[in-house]
From TrEMBL, chains A, B:
<comment type="similarity">
    <text>Belongs to the class-V pyridoxal-phosphate-dependent aminotransferase family.</text>
</comment>
<dbReference type="Pfam" id="PF00266">
    <property type="entry name" value="Aminotran_5"/>
</dbReference>
<dbReference type="InterPro" id="IPR024169">
    <property type="entry name" value="SP_NH2Trfase/AEP_transaminase"/>
</dbReference>
<feature type="modified residue" description="N6-(pyridoxal phosphate)lysine">
    <location>
        <position position="198"/>
    </location>
</feature>
<dbReference type="InterPro" id="IPR020578">
    <property type="entry name" value="Aminotrans_V_PyrdxlP_BS"/>
</dbReference>
<dbReference type="InterPro" id="IPR015422">
    <property type="entry name" value="PyrdxlP-dep_Trfase_small"/>
</dbReference>
<dbReference type="GO" id="GO:0004760">
    <property type="term" value="F:L-serine-pyruvate transaminase activity"/>
</dbReference>
<dbReference type="InterPro" id="IPR015424">
    <property type="entry name" value="PyrdxlP-dep_Trfase"/>
</dbReference>
<dbReference type="InterPro" id="IPR000192">
    <property type="entry name" value="Aminotrans_V_dom"/>
</dbReference>
<feature type="domain" description="Aminotransferase class V">
    <location>
        <begin position="38"/>
        <end position="350"/>
    </location>
</feature>
<keyword id="KW-0032">Aminotransferase</keyword>
<keyword id="KW-0663">Pyridoxal phosphate</keyword>
<dbReference type="InterPro" id="IPR015421">
    <property type="entry name" value="PyrdxlP-dep_Trfase_major"/>
</dbReference>
<dbReference type="GO" id="GO:0008453">
    <property type="term" value="F:alanine-glyoxylate transaminase activity"/>
</dbReference>
<keyword id="KW-0808">Transferase</keyword>
<feature type="binding site">
    <location>
        <position position="361"/>
    </location>
    <ligand>
        <name>substrate</name>
    </ligand>
</feature>
<dbReference type="GO" id="GO:0019265">
    <property type="term" value="P:glycine biosynthetic process, by transamination of glyoxylate"/>
</dbReference>
């Protein structure tokens, strides 16, 4: 029989836009023996996790719980639960994950209308509001922080315009939750989807979501019709039941409520991990955490610019937790990444679609976002580029970053 | 600010039909720092997991990988990927999880035809084969082991009949995989869904599946049409693209293949856990593991019968890993369960739907299935029933179980 070695993964410095390194406190939480899903101790842990999610999403919504799947499972759960076939869904696209929203919405039967912006930029919020006023969609779905381009979309006025035309506003905050402000209630976001493996620094495998009473009303209306479906002439209903059992928010909220109606078996160990990750976020404090991400971004950017490297994207909409760098002309970007991993144990990211071979992406997210890592990646990148004969300034990157840490400089 | 305590779950003896106790080796694997999803070390772990899944499913299928979600996510992934709206799906129901198959298939747009059998019994396989020949469904979906009733359905001839009418046979082996034989290739099963948190004794949160070339052909046919969809008059296509992105097996297999096309971010830590859980299963050996489950079942049953308790269900189709006990008349089943948990730290399960308040269910699955646990639950149940004034024989249960372990007795 074939045998397989003991698990013994190398220790990496993970500076991608996710998944990122996990706090040892979270790893330790995952090593605890499990509880049954209806054990009163476990349901209490579920309730605490909901409480902490409300704080992290900055919301007073009743519903805030994880979907048991990776980040896109949260997006699909929200969209499949609220999109009725034929619903008009407006998706402003400014990077790869906008296209994912389109794909998911279309699979749910939506009539999708898109707005597109060149990658590396974002929309003026008024452009989006104007499109909402013009199209009067049932749902607006958009990405908050695009890891594909390192850009963050402002929301000024968009939530208000959605309320005006009675559209639901669904936001993919997978990359931003826990790293940059996501003010669910203040921005009038109706549903928000977060990711675990980015700024929350919990392993991939859960997707925390929150949604308000406007979303719930649409979900429950569909549920009512579903229950009556067999008694009704099939030609009559204009809405169909949610096309998924696993992602049906109506059933999921009954499981996460005091009713505890059995749905799936909650992923025990991932719940332990998420709870511990959220505790760490709240113990640090949200605003302090946002400031920390900005500080390390500043040091990283100062170092990269001191080397003479050029950043990609419009700096006025730069996402603090992802920094995109133009690969210098003539350089094999993959060879550089391979040397960073092989010689330095550092992972940085390549890129998607039209940017393939054009940029590298460095994440400064959650537990990975610290001075040791930023200095390590700057030193390693400088040495690797120099080794490859790239014409860069040497000896300056770490000095520039250290100056930021010492409070003596800010990036150009 | 509200504070939350350090995680410190009580140690439980979990004797439910899942989730069950997790081997400390698996828990330890979950405490390792993570790797990036495209790190060559991680993709190698993914490949090893696929290899081991093929062994556990007893198949030479190319495709065997986990869906990142709880068990029903694997069921939904298979069904949503192969059911075209209007497809006839035959579901033989003999317990609660047959109804789940119906619900999922209906949400996928299937025309579902059911056969029903009284709970506590299973079908004569010839009844199912006759229905397949009569109905000529596109798909037959059925449960292998029903945790709701503790019954196991034999498959003799069903796979052959499915091939004859060109139906795909999809089997929910969530409760059985790793505990009782699931011979995918020998039984001509086209797709099989396993669960992690039962006989594999890995925490809930992944669902390993396997499927053969017949299933793949149907999935890929839909993928082709999906790609051409925008160019085709919407009224023309008779098949629609898969209604889910997260569960689209066509995209998932591209991610799990050497192509490594980006889909989701694989759930790193759960993959570590599944890999370690599968290593443990294969190190024990499948047939030895099946025998172990039968041995502890025999001891448990001997002890329960020695107490004078009555088992629920037809003994000729009893599932080795779940034992259902009729709650004696006049006994508050929930009070007994609460005392088992509170005084003995033991969890046994209540029941679903028509059996609510009628039976208890005891699981002997995976890591939880051991002599220490069986003797602990028998002793605790005897003492608890006696404490509640139930008229049972005392002092006999442990003797009867010990006799089985000593090889001196088999249950009546």
């Amino acid at each position: 029989m074939k045998t397989y070695k003991d698990l013994s993964p190398s220790l990496r410095t993970i500076m991608t836009p996710g998944p990122v390194e996990v706090d040892p406190r979270v790893l330790r939480a995952m090593s605890y023996p499990i509880l049954g899903q209806f054990d009163p101790e476990f349901t209490e842990l579920m309730n605490e996790t909901m409480d902490m999610l409300r704080d992290v999403f900055q919301t007073s919504n009743q519903w805030a719980f994880p979907i048991d799947g990776t980040s896109r499972s949260g997006i699909e759960a929200v969209l499949v639960s609220i999109i009725e076939p034929g619903d008009k869904v407006l998706v402003p696209i400014y990077g790869r994950f906008g296209h994912l929203l389109v794909e998911i919405a279309e699979r749910c039967g939506a009539a999708v209308v898109t707005l597109e912006k060149a990658w590396g930029t974002v929309f003026d919020p008024e452009e989006i509001s104007a499109a909402i006023g013009r199209e009067k969609p049932a749902i607006v779905a958009m990405v908050h922080g695009e890891t594909s381009t390192g850009c963050v979309q402002p929301f000024d006025g968009i939530g208000e315009e959605c309320r005006r035309v009675d559209a639901l506003l669904v936001v993919d905050a997978v990359a931003t939750i826990g790293g940059v402000p996501v003010r669910t209630d203040e921005w009038l976001l109706d549903a928000v989807i977060g990711g675990t493996q980015k700024c929350l620094s919990v392993p991939s495998g859960m997707s925390p979501i929150t949604y308000n009473a406007r979303v719930e009303a649409k979900v429950l209306r569909r549920k009512t019709i579903e229950r009556g479906l067999r008694d009704i002439d099939a030609a009559v209903p204009t809405v169909r039941p949610v096309a998924s059992n696993y992602f049906d928010l109506g059933q999921l909220q009954d499981y996460w409520s005091p009713k505890r109606l059995n749905h799936h078996t909650e992923a025990t160990t991932m719940l332990y991990a998420l709870r511990e990750g959220l505790r760490i976020v709240l113990q640090e404090g949200l605003e302090a955490r946002f400031q920390r991400h900005k500080k390390h971004e500043a040091a990283l950017v100062a170092g990269l610019q001191a080397m003479g490297l050029t950043l990609y994207g419009d700096p006025t909409c730069k996402l603090a937790v992802v920094t995109c760098i133009r690969i210098p002309a003539g350089v094999d970007g993959e060879a550089v990444r391979a040397m960073l991993l092989g010689s330095f144990g550092i992972e940085i990211a390549s890129s998607f679609g039209p940017l393939k071979g054009q940029i590298w992406r460095i994440g400064t997210m959650g537990f990975s976002c610290n001075q040791k890592n930023v200095l390590h990646v700057l030193g390693a990148l400088e040495a690797t580029l120099h080794w490859h004969g790239v014409d860069i300034s040497t000896g300056k990157a770490l000095q520039a970053a250290l100056a930021v840490y010492a409070g003596e400089a800010t990036p150009c």
